[in-house]
Amino acid sequence: MSGKPRLTYLNGRGRMEPVRWLLAAAGVEFEEVYLETKEQYEKLIKDGLLLFQQVPLVEIDGMKMVQTRAIMSYIAGKYNLYGKDLKERALIDMYVEGISDLMQMILMFPFSPPDSKEKNLESIKERATNRYFPVFEKVLKQHGQDFLVGNKFSWADVQLMEAILAVEEKVPDVLSGFPQLQVFKTKMSNMPTIKKFLQPGSPRKPPPDAHYVETVLKVFKK
User: How far from 6 is each of 57, 72, 83, 204, CA to CA, in Å?
Assistant: First the structure.
């Protein structure tokens, strides 16, 4: 092994995309293995590589880690993106959990039945503009700093940036009422590691299409 973290998942966003974002933001190169068949997935389970029979799987520092939250906590701690003390870590956790709730809606959206898509899109827009983005707009305004926690780049900033771009793909003007978040997005986009990740040809995955949905259903079908 090259020493680079090795990510096993499908060739698409899903639950691995926040992991890719976090590693990229930390400036860490990684390798990827893509699951394309049910047999590949079943072999991972049979070989005992998936503790709870679920991917993502990230091999890092001699560990075979599953569960997205645990993987990301480890990466954030390892690369100094997890605050300076317990209080900052608690804030980061709180913000990350909130953003994860919004991202869960986006994650499930491509799998909505056609007659529910419009309703689900409205739900994403409503939650983003009324419940989640106002929180971060207020936090940034109140402390007047560039970052969400401790005036230092953290996992929470990475997660928020990913969420902003994911919602904008579906609701392009979603930030129109959030001037602080507009500034935040511009600053984040210009951070060297994130700027690199946003360029064509980076490991960032495109929005899920019909082929991705089909592959997910094929690999994980019961």
Answer: 8, 14, 25, 15
Domain covering 6-79+198-220 in this structure, CATH number = 3.40.30.10
Question: So what's the pLDDT on residue 162?
Answer: 97
Question: How far apart (Å, rounded) are the C-alpha atoms in residues 146 and 222?
Answer: 46
What pLDDT, on the 0 to 100 scale, is given for residue 88?
Answer: 97
Closest CA to 18 of 101, 124, 126: 101
- Measured between alpha carbons, how far is residue 142 from residues 91, 137, 150, 200 in Å? 15, 9, 13, 35
Report strand pairing: 57-60 vs 6-9. Answer: antiparallel
Find tokens 């893509």 and name the residue.
34
Which residues partner with 31 through β-bridges? 6
Domain ranges of the chain: 6-79+198-220, 86-190
Q: Say what the pLDDT of residue 1 is.
A: 44
User: Can you tell me the distance from the alpha carbon of 219 to that of 40, in angstroms, rounded to the nearest whole number?
Assistant: 8
What's 86-190's CATH class? Answer: mainly alpha
At 118, phi and psi to the nearest 5?
-65, -45
Ranges of the chain with pLDDT below 70: 1-2, 222
